[in-house]
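Dear colleague,

Thank you for sharing your sequence with our group. We've completed the structure prediction you requested, and as agreed, I am returning the results in plain text so they can be pasted directly into your records. Please verify that the sequence below matches your submission; if there's any discrepancy, let me know and we will rerun it promptly.
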Amino acid sequence: MARCSGTTRSGTRCKREALEGSTYCTLHQDQAGDETGAGGEGDAAGPHESYRSPASDAAIVLGVAAVTWAVLRRFFRIF
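Please find the predicted C-alpha cells below.
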C-alpha cells in the first residue's frame, strides 16, 4: 500500500498507510478535498480533532480531578 500524502500539524508528511483507492489515510481524508469527497465538520478543528470522543474528554476531566485531589490531600494532609 502507498503512504499517505497528508501533512501533519507540524508540517511533516504523514507516515500512515493510505486507504485503498485514495492517497490519504483516515485522519487526512479532509486534505484530499474533492478527490474523496471527505471533509466537512472536522475541517475547522483539524484532521485529528474530529476523532476525539466525548468519552475521552470525560476521562481527561476525571484524570485531572484525581491528580488535583491527590495533590491537595498531600499538601494539606487531609484524609
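Summary note from our side: Residues 53-79 form one domain.

Kind regards,
the structure core
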